[in-house]
Design goal:
By secondary structure, the chain is α+β, with helices and mostly antiparallel strands. It has one helix and four strands. It has a domain of about 80 residues. The longest helix is centred in the N-terminal third of the chain and has 13 residues. The protein is globular and about 60 Å long. The termini are far apart.
Length: about 110
């Protein structure tokens, strides 16, 4: 039976294929858990990473190229602190809504 076959991690050369398959399924990758507190300036536009691949979380660095994702622009209407989602599971993009199970183990204070 199939259930009796032990699960083995795919060879390294196939891992990138699996990552690309996940991207094609329009599921963003989780960059981290919990929100990122950011000081924003009134009138400035920030580009929120929607794919989860950026090395400059929570903002875009262009890593989404070749994926179905595009960054989401946010223009600050006032200067202050905002809590941007980094797990990419929020329903209140680009802000953390603290409803993701990934945020359950942290103190969420947006």
């Amino acid at each position: 039976m199939v259930e009796d076959v032990p699960r083995v991690a795919p060879p390294r050369r196939y891992r990138s294929c699996l990552i690309n398959l996940e991207r094609l399924m329009n599921k963003s990758e989780t960059a981290s858990t919990g929100p990122a507190e950011v000081a924003v300036e009134c009138g400035k536009t920030y580009w929120w990473c929607a794919c989860g691949l950026s090395q400059k979380q929570p903002f875009c660095d262009g890593s989404h190229k070749g994926t179905p994702f595009t960054p989401l622009p946010y223009q600050a209407s006032e200067t202050g602190r905002k809590w941007f989602c980094v797990c990419k599971q929020t329903k209140n993009r680009p802000f953390c809504d603290c409803t993701s199970p990934l945020c359950a183990t942290i103190t969420c204070a947006p």
